[in-house]
Write a structure and sequence with these properties.
The complex is a heterodimer of chains A (271) and B (424). Chain A has 271 residues and is mostly helical. Chain A has a domain of 155 residues: Cytochrome c-like domain (Cytochrome Bc1 Complex, Chain D, domain 2), CATH 1.10.760. Helix content of chain A is 42%, strand content 4%. In chain A, the strands form 2 sheets. Chain A has a two-stranded antiparallel ribbon with strand order 1-2. Chain A has a two-stranded antiparallel ribbon with strand order 3-4. In chain A, α2 packs across α8 and α7 runs antiparallel to α8. The two termini of chain A are 40 Å apart. Chain B is an all-alpha fold and 424 residues long. The two termini of chain B are 33 Å apart. Chain B has 17 helices and 2 strands. In chain B, α5 runs antiparallel to α6, α11 packs antiparallel against α12 and α14 runs antiparallel to α15. Classes of the chains: A mainly alpha (271), B mainly alpha (424). The interface between A and B is large, with 55 and 62 residues.
Chain lengths: 271, 424
């Protein structure tokens, strides 16, 4: 019967290799927010925010994020005054006023980031039918799954960065299509995008966004920074989660140890 | 749990209550003096773990429902509101999502423990059937809960699963539309799923009470599978079982905390469910949660839709008949050399089906899934009935305390007490 189990395992392995190879897997990057003690690199997500504001936000909405979030603990570390300043640079459509009219006003902390397009149809009309996805959860809405059985090791190693790894790979993964493939002018070749044909033209160019802290202004650096920013956007309480998690673990391990000793003591007199 | 207990309260208020409603002596009889076999191993701690998990799911779920909006336009945003703006909303939601997964893990361990030690045999048939009813209710609850965030996977899982009923000849279409409350999965579907998702856990709690009642009436099984013969075979529930259950529960909560705090989206929420539901765009792979995958693999292993659905439901229904399909009088696999081997192959087959359920239904995957599906049914319908006649069980010990307390000598007694469990 042990043999039967072995044969089963072999059959499973053959079955998986028989199925055609899929998308290239995004290479794993090292992120400051990975692991049990991971935290966001404040300077990095501030830079990432600038990349979002100067480049991505022209097409991508971020409707679940409010300006007040920029100043909340565990975030990019802007002061409240800075967050107010950022908000005031946006025009927010509000109303109706007491004349029944809608009006524009400068943004406030409680406002959410406005969408670049009034609705989905308008966005699709602007991009030849393609819809730029909302960025609020995108770092969790993408993945780079290793597949069974490696996925089991990922549970032990706490690998949860499939989304950021994919986004970074996508942003830096543009290239020329293989020989014999011609693309219409509205499509671009990307080594990591499912199906390889993406409707977004390479968004980041060297030197496009100005950094004030001396960080190199390269496509790779922009991609890395904006990806880290998007991870914070998708999981704003990540730092609190990992910090509380460690406290909970310490408590449970001590509690478990005491429970084990009392169990041993109780059962020791059993005769 | 029957009759009047031995508990005599001293406090006058408790005495007053006890004369009018003997709830204190009921608790005392059920959780303090209740005799449990002294040789229970850690596989017997999962009943307590499951009760705890049910309570966790209900408590977190009730609070989540205070902030959730069951509308097709508001559900996704309200879940994100919980994750971002509700105080510790992320913690509640991650406990609830990962708690569901670990609830199933504990349930599967509990079920396989029952299979290995023959916990479903006379006189525990009704106890077992109540357990299978709980399992079915859990599956319905988990499925409907999965739909509530109204992400892509929520929507398409709801579409795939409700469409299973369209395979019923004649009435399929009508039944499916009745479930949907319309002509597709939409607002009415979400709203009724929310209502039922809130209702079913309390039904589970009710059946759990019956399950415990039946358990306390017939008494627990044990790794040797022989009946309790004297007081020497048992120990009082408190402190012995409570101390052991307590330790096992804390270990299980450490596992839960690992998922909740460090890898909350590993089991709980797949990437596609962070994309709002879009009826016009089918995700490339629609994959259910891991705890449904063996059944999903069985469904897809059968080329005919109706027969696939029959096999899917049959694979669960067959569990109801297990007490009569297993013809052996010996309960514990420890004394059944052949059964033990078929059992472990069955475990491997279930894990294999779980893996195949996550893979696209094509090529070699389908062939292997068919072989494993065949074994799944053969195990219950052919192997178990036949083994009772073909297998020669090993001799059973005379009593529970005999192998535990082999000699009267103090040294042997101490050793036996420390290691009541021996590998069979």
């Amino acid at each position: 019967m042990r043999k039967t189990a072995l044969i089963l395992a072999c059959a499973l392995a053959t079955a998986s290799s028989a199925v055609a190879e899929e998308q290239a897997l995004a290479p794993r990057q090292s992120w400051s927010f990975a692991g049990p003690f991971g935290t966001f690199d404040r300077a990095q997500i501030q830079r990432g925010f600038h990349v979002y504001r100067d480049v991505c936000s022209a097409c991508h909405a971020m409707k679940h994020v409010a300006f007040r979030n920029l100043a909340q603990p565990g975030g990019p570390g802007f002061s409240e005054a800075q967050a107010k300043q950022v908000a005031s640079e946006y025009r927010i459509n509000d109303g109706p006023n007491d004349k029944g009219e809608m009006f524009d006003r400068p943004g406030r902390l409680s406002d959410f980031f406005p969408s670049p397009d009034p609705n989905e149809q308008a966005a699709r009309a602007r991009f030849n039918g393609a819809l730029p996805p909302d960025f609020s959860e995108i770092a969790k809405a993408r993945g780079a799954e290793a597949g069974f059985p490696w996925v089991v090791f990922d549970a032990v190693r706490q690998y949860q960065e499939g989304g950021p790894d994919y986004i970074y790979a996508y942003l830096t993964g543009y290239g020329d299509p293989p020989a014999g493939v011609t693309l219409p002018p509205t499509q671009f070749w990307n080594n990591y995008f499912p199906g390889h044909r993406t409707a977004m033209r390479p968004p980041l160019q060297n030197g496009q966004v100005e950094y004030t802290d001396g960080t190199p202004t390269t496509t790779e650096q922009y991609s890395r920074d904006v990806t880290a920013f998007l991870m914070w956007v998708a999981e704003p309480h990540l730092e609190a989660r990992k910090r509380i998690g460690f406290q909970v673990m310490i408590f449970l391990i001590v509690f478990g140890g005491l429970a084990y000793l009392s169990k041993k003591k109780v059962w020791a007199d059993l005769h | 749990m029957a009759g009047h207990g031995t508990f005599q309260p001293k406090n006058p208020i408790l005495k007053w209550l006890e004369r009018r409603l003997p709830v204190l002596s009921l608790m005392h009889d059920s959780f303090v003096v209740y005799p449990v076999p002294r040789n229970l191993n850690y596989w017997w701690t999962f009943g307590g773990i499951l009760s705890f998990m049910l309570a966790v799911q209900i408590v977190t779920g009730v609070v989540l429902a205070m902030h959730y909006t069951p509308t097709s336009s508001g559900a996704f945003d309200s879940v994100e509101h919980i994750m971002r703006d509700v105080n510790y909303g992320w913690l509640l939601r991650y406990i609830h999502a990962n708690g569901a997964s670990l609830f199933f893990l504990a349930a599967y361990i509990h079920i396989f423990r029952g299979l290995y030690y023959g916990s479903y045999k006379e006189p525990r048939e009704v106890l077992w059937i109540l357990g299978v009813i709980i399992f079915v209710l859990m599956m319905a609850t988990a499925f409907m809960g999965y739909v509530l965030p109204w992400g892509q996977m929520s929507f398409w899982a709801a579409t795939v699963i409700t469409n299973l009923f369209s395979a019923i000849p004649g009435f399929g279409r009508a039944i499916t539309q009745w479930l949907w409350g319309g002509y597709a999965v939409d607002q009415p579907t979400l709203q009724r799923f929310f209502s039922l998702h809130y209702l079913l856990p309390f039904m589970i709690a009710g059946v759990v009470v019956l399950h415990l009642w039946a358990l306390h009436h017939v008494g627990q099984g044990n790794p040797l599978g022989i009946d309790v013969k004297s007081d020497r075979d048992t120990v009082p529930f408190t402190p012995y079982a409570t101390a052991k259950d307590n330790f096992a529960l804390i270990c299980f909560v450490i596992l839960l905390a690992w998922f909740v705090f460090y890898i909350p989206n590993f089991l709980g929420i797949p990437p596609d469910n962070y994309i709002p539901a879009n009826p016009l765009q089918t995700p490339p792979h629609i994959v259910p949660e891991w705890y449904f995958l063996p059944f999903y693999a069985i469904l897809r292993a059968i080329p005919n839709k109706l027969l696939g659905v029959v096999a899917l439901f049959g694979s669960i229904l067959v569990l109801f008949f297990l007490p009569w399909l297993d013809t052996s009088k010996v309960r514990s696999a420890r004394f059944r050399p052949l059964y033990r081997q078929f059992f472990w192959v069955f475990v491997a087959v279930c894990i294999g089906l779980d893996y195949l359920g996550s893979k696209p239904a094509e090529g070699g995957y389908v062939i292997v899934a068919r072989v494993l599906t065949a074994y799944y049914f053969l195990y219950f319908l052919v192997i178990l009935p036949a083994l009772g006649y073909l297998e020669t069980p090993r001799p059973l010990p005379a009593s529970i305390s005999e192998p535990v307390l082999p000699e009267k000598s103090a040294a042997a007694v101490a050793m036996g007490a420390r290691a009541p469990e021996r590998k069979g």
